[in-house]
Backbone:
């Protein structure tokens, strides 16, 4: 079964705030739900499918939030693949719509990562063999970065170029957490957190949220504004293969081709890409995984303004991304929202890609130093 | 899958010096080397490299297992130092 053309994104909304110490997680979920439904021209009464992940409160996000929102969904999904979960949800929503299980699917994310960080549950089989050694998220990404440098000659300057591009875009986003442009020298001069990664190789940590409304073609037809077509979706997970560790690629090598095949397009056709950017190295490796450049060619690809909007080789993360705009522990939701803005020509004018007809949103949950959940979404204009 | 005795020989697959935002159990340890070591027998495992100036580390270099006793438990951690 292919989801190509079987569902449309009718509404998208990013919470404008980046620090919300006095709001509950449920409030943030509710505010973005209403925002995205209003954007679509729909109301909570229209929702018959609901999707959220473990950032939603309670022992079951959908059960808790359905009560809080006053909705009665006939289809729920609480898939958790970490930062990529929202991108997985869009694929699952499209499949559910195609199967006739729902027709207006609401996907919400709300997380107080800055005010009230949720500690992971350290009960996975591998934890005693990793946490014991002082493994950290940034440390694990650093292990991947160092290995990529060793195998492919990637440099810290090339990684810094990714931050420079994100910061350049963020200056035009009034809601971005960090709006000041930076230079390569400033990235390289920021403190080492886990070498070779500097502080400015790392994403921001914010309170934040966002929501997406996915609808059937029949619902889309009657809505007042243009919709974004779901063209293709792929998901995959990767671990350490029980000791056969290879940190130079992520599960995007599998989720990407699945999405491209379903959408019947190739990387060359993509006008704009939201690439998950928990760290600069996350972007570089996923660009290779998705086939935007050859394996080991990521460093060259991102140099010389390769990722800059509107005219770079592949304009990316025009909202400033997780590196500068917003990363409420999970960045997949904002990846979708900015891709939708680009396809609707609603990105900030300085970074709007002219004639943007095909966009990609790539998510990477977990850490590429151990295990990840990857999701790839390809979106097009309504008549694609 | 079965148990076997490993030689303790390994090579360095990748490493980092964790400086800022350390793991909570290492909060007072100062910078420490987090690494993956590939055992001579094949598997790659996460570990620490000890008794080394991190500036001298190179991916691919030979390592030798060493054991650290954990103070508050009846266990030992397998770590590595340059061979």
Residues:
């Amino acid at each position: 079964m292919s989801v190509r053309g079987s569902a449309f994104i009718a509404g998208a909304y990013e919470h404008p705030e980046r620090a919300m110490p006095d709001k509950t997680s449920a409030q943030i979920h509710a505010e973005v739900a209403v925002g995205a439904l209003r954007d679509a021209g729909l109301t909570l009464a229209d929702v018959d499918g609901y999707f959220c992940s473990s950032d939603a409160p309670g022992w079951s996000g959908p059960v808790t939030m359905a009560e809080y929102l006053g909705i009665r969904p006939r289809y729920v999904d609480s898939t958790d693949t970490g930062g990529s979960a929202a991108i997985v949800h869009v694929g699952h929503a499209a499949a559910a719509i195609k199967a006739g299980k729902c027709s207006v699917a609401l996907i919400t994310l709300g997380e107080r990562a800055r005010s009230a960080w949720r500690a992971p549950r350290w009960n996975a089989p591998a934890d005693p063999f990793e946490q014991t050694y002082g493994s950290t998220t940034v440390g694990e990404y650093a292990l991947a970065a160092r290995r990529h440098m060793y195998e492919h000659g990637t440099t810290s300057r090339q990684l810094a170029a990714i931050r420079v591009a994100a910061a350049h875009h963020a200056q035009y986003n009034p809601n971005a957490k960090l709006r000041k442009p930076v230079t390569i020298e400033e990235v390289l001069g920021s403190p080492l957190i886990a070498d070779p990664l500097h502080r400015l190789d790392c994403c921001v940590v914010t309170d934040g949220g966002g929501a997406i409304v996915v609808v059937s073609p029949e619902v889309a037809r009657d809505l007042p504004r243009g919709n974004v077509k779901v063209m293709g979706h792929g998901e995959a997970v990767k671990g350490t293969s029980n000791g056969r560790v290879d940190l130079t690629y992520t599960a995007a090598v599998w989720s990407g081709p699945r999405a491209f095949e379903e959408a019947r397009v190739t990387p060359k056709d993509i006008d704009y890409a939201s690439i998950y950017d928990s760290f600069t190295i996350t972007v570089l490796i996923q660009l290779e995984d998705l086939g935007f450049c050859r394996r080991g060619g990521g460093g060259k690809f991102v140099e010389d303004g390769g990722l800059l909007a509107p005219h770079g080789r592949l304009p990316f993360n025009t909202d400033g991304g997780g590196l500068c705009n917003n990363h409420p522990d999970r960045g997949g939701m904002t990846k979708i929202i900015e891709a939708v803005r680009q396809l609707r020509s609603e990105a900030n004018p300085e970074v709007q890609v002219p004639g943007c007809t095909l966009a990609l949103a790539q998510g990477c949950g977990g850490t590429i130093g151990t295990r990840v959940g990857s999701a790839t979404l390809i979106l097009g204009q309504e008549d694609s | 899958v079965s148990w076997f005795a490993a030689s303790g020989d390994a090579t360095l697959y990748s490493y980092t010096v964790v400086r800022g935002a350390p793991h909570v159990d290492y909060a007072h340890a100062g910078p420490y080397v987090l690494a993956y070591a590939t055992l001579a027998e094949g598997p790659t495992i996460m570990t620490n490299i000890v008794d080394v100036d991190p500036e001298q580390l190179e991916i691919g270099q030979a390592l030798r297992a060493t054991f650290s006793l954990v103070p508050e438990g009846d266990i030992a951690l397998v770590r590595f130092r340059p061979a």
Q: What stands out?
A: The mean pLDDT of chain B is 93. Chain B touches chain A through 30 residues (CB under 8 Å). DSSP finds no helices and five strands in chain B.
